[in-house]
Amino acid sequence: MNKKLVKSIFYTFFTGFILWSVYADAASSSSPQTVVTIGLIFVLLIAYVENKKLVKWLKVKNQTLEEMINTFSENCPDLIAYKNIKHRYITCNKAMCRAYRLKSFMSVKDKTTFELLPPKAAAIIMAHDSKVIETGKSIKYTIEIDHPSSGSKTYDVISAPTKKDGEVTGIMTIARDITIRERMRAKFIEKQKQVNDMMDNLPMVSFVTDKEGKYLRGNSKFLELMNLNHDELAGVNIAHTYTDAGTKTIDYENKVVIKEKRPLITEHLYKIAGREAAWYKEYRVPIINEHKRVIGITVFLLDIQKEKEASQQKERFIATLSHDLKTPTIAQVRSLEMLLDGMFGGLNEEQQEMLKLTLESCKNMYDMVSTVLFSYKFENEEIKLHCTDINIIELTAECCNDLAKYANEKNLEILIKPKSKIGQICADRTFIKRAIANILENSISYAFEKTKIEILIKNHNKNLEIQIVSESPFIKKEALEMMFDKYRGQASYNKIGFCLKLHLAKQIVEAHNGVLIAESKKSDKNIFGFIIPSSVNSQTPLEKVML
């Protein structure tokens, strides 16, 4: 019950009670009927006054409510219109006037939809309006209207009945312009189609998952591989549908991609959809939104089974070749050393000199074969680093001692010059020594006779820097850039053996997340060396200094 009405009734009865008390004395002098009549008259008068107040209040409230409704209707961006059951407009809001190019809401009065809109759209609207009138229930639908002035527009429409005493008296229509949204949706669908077409044309299996690994889409090659369709894969965790040879799921790879927000490239021996296990190279790429959050992962699978088989054959060939070359070479070296030691009788000077040259040639051959083998293994990631704490100055001194004979032949002086206090570094001792030795040997080979070679060792931030400075012929930039190249270096280098050794040095340095230093000055001073992290555990490769 309305609070005003309750208050009015209360005041009426309260006032009546007071009046009854005031005129109670009349009861002794007058008949009871007279007293009751007087009291009722006063009660009715007060009730009349309070009712007038209530009517006035309700009128104000209704007026306020109408103003609120009108304000909302006039300022609402949606198109609002009222029609009677004969499908003729009663009124509309400003948004509809603007959309239909009408001067005012009076322009629609008594008009039908056919008088305002193209016939096709009008027929659809009238059909829905008729259903609303027939059923007395609201209807929601979408319609495209080709306006002669403003072009084609798409609307979401709600048609609702207006009722009085349960009978439908008219129709209220609210239409929302969704043209931009629909155009965006159409563009999205088109882009999605382009993405799907692109994925289908890829030469590899590809699919997309959410960050939990659940399937979103895949190309035709993926569906063919899995022998399933989109519906069968929807919501499935793809990581559980194919496994490695040890039947371990690959969820952890997704976690790495999501956590580090970077692509991950791996090789696995996968068993997929009951097929025989085969080698695949897998590329996992994070999908990052505008908030820099990973929302999904794109996976590419490349069948490398044939490449793996070919690589294994190549490995066997290299191993056999290395064995077949190294074994007789070692035998030759030992035989020559035994001859030079006089185990089979004395030799004259000419014979000794001849044997020394032959021995040196055999040792060079053995060294070259070893270099080729090491380089091959590095390229195929067969060699793992075994890092320990090493004294780099002592290690460099060992390299100098090993090459002392070679340096003395050219009357070269080799000096080790630490530029700062050098502590221990964490690296693979064997390979770092080989890298230093290979670069130093190259510097000795091309240094001018009776000159100095300086080995500068210094700390470079959290990195170790080694520079081997020699006086030697100027090297053009083009040749300098090719010296560490396995193939191009042979064309610019007179000594193939040194080219291979420099290439191996490059591989060792890069395996330690380091970079090479290569510089040639016109003052006949060449600088070769490298920079590596003081700890090989650092996973951030250094920026290239030279080359």
Kindly describe this structure.
Helix 11 packs antiparallel against helix 12 and helix 13 (392-402) packs across helix 15 (429-446). Residues 489-497 and 538-547 have low confidence and may be disordered. This protein has five domains: 3-72; 76-177, Beta-Lactamase; 183-303, Beta-Lactamase; 308-379; 387-533, 2-Layer Sandwich (Heat Shock Protein 90). It has helices at residues 3-22, 26-29, 32-75, 94-99, 113-116, 119-135, 179-201, 220-226, 230-233, 251-260, 305-340, 349-379, 392-402, 404-408, 429-446, 477-482, 488-492, 496-511, and strands at residues 79-84, 89-92, 139-147, 151-164, 167-177, 205-210, 215-218, 242-244, 264-272, 278-288, 294-303, 387-390, 413-418, 425-428, 452-460, 463-471, 515-521, 525-533. It has 18 helices and 18 strands. The protein has a six-stranded antiparallel sheet, sandwiched between helices. A hairpin with a 5-residue loop joins strand 10 and strand 11 (294-303). By secondary structure, it is α+β, with helices and mostly antiparallel strands. Helices cover 49% and strands 25% of the residues.
